[in-house]
Design goal:
heterodimer; A: about 120 residues; mainly beta; 6-stranded mixed beta sheet; 4-stranded antiparallel beta sheet; B: about 110 residues; 9 strands
Chain lengths: ~120, ~110
């Protein structure tokens, strides 16, 4: 079955960077876009950006421009999201999610989430 | 940017029908998708393209969309339906997805 498995929880200090991985299985990794969405505790869902695993093309939400980088390693079917210059407000669960077809704009499935805690 | 507004909470008795609204300017012209998120879990798609259900989602979940309001309807509500629900559309003007504010469904 289609599955996205993310890396484990991280604790970072303000100003540091974090890199979260998302390993895909059950489908051809390069065929479908991967998006990243985050959720602060008790808050709603916030879209961060997308990446085309085939071309490596990316698009980022304006809020994260200059701080986020989305990359991939096709040989191991893994997408990455790196967020730099971390601040306390970046404490959240970060999810990767697949766009299930070229003509769709919804997300299915989602990874299990990675908690990133930013604290001094 | 495009804004989607949901009621913060909806309460429903078991066996009854829950209706969750998602308001947006002329949302009827867009495709609306709905996600269910249980505590400590990732969101799960329950309805896409206004009213289609992914495989494995019970027929009790249905959707509609017209004018300025989209609605997710949960029929014959069960205790296991207690969760947060989010609507989502693609905002063509900014070329990115937008999520609703989320609705917590409580089963009495």
């Amino acid at each position: 079955q289609v599955q996205l498995v993310q890396s484990g929880a991280e604790v970072k200090k303000p100003g540091a960077s974090v890199k979260v991985s998302c390993k895909a299985s059950g489908y051809t990794f390069t065929s479908y876009d991967i998006n990243w969405v985050r959720q602060a505790t008790g808050q709603g869902l916030e879209w961060m950006g997308w990446m085309n695993p085939n071309s490596g093309n990316t698009g980022y939400a304006q809020k994260f421009q200059g701080r986020v980088t989305m990359t991939r390693n096709t040989s191991i079917s893994t997408a990455y999201m790196e967020l730099s210059s971390l601040r306390s407000e970046d404490t959240a669960v970060y999810y990767c999610a697949r766009v299930p077809s070229i003509s769709s704009n919804w997300f299915d499935p989602w990874g299990q989430g990675t908690l990133v805690t930013v604290s001094s | 940017s495009y804004v989607l507004t949901q009621p913060p909470s909806v309460s429903v008795a078991p066996g009854q029908t829950a209706r969750i609204t998602c308001g947006g300017n002329n949302i009827g012209s867009k495709s609306v998708h709905w996600y269910q998120q249980k505590p400590g879990q990732a969101p799960v798609l329950v309805v896409y393209d206004d009213s289609d259900r992914p495989s494995g989602i019970p027929e009790r979940f249905s959707g509609s969309n017209s004018g300025n309001t989209a609605t997710l309807t949960i029929s014959r509500v069960e205790a296991g339906d207690e969760a947060d629900y989010y609507c989502q559309v693609w905002d063509s003007s900014s070329d990115h997805p937008v999520f609703g504010t989320g609705t917590k469904v409580t089963v009495l």
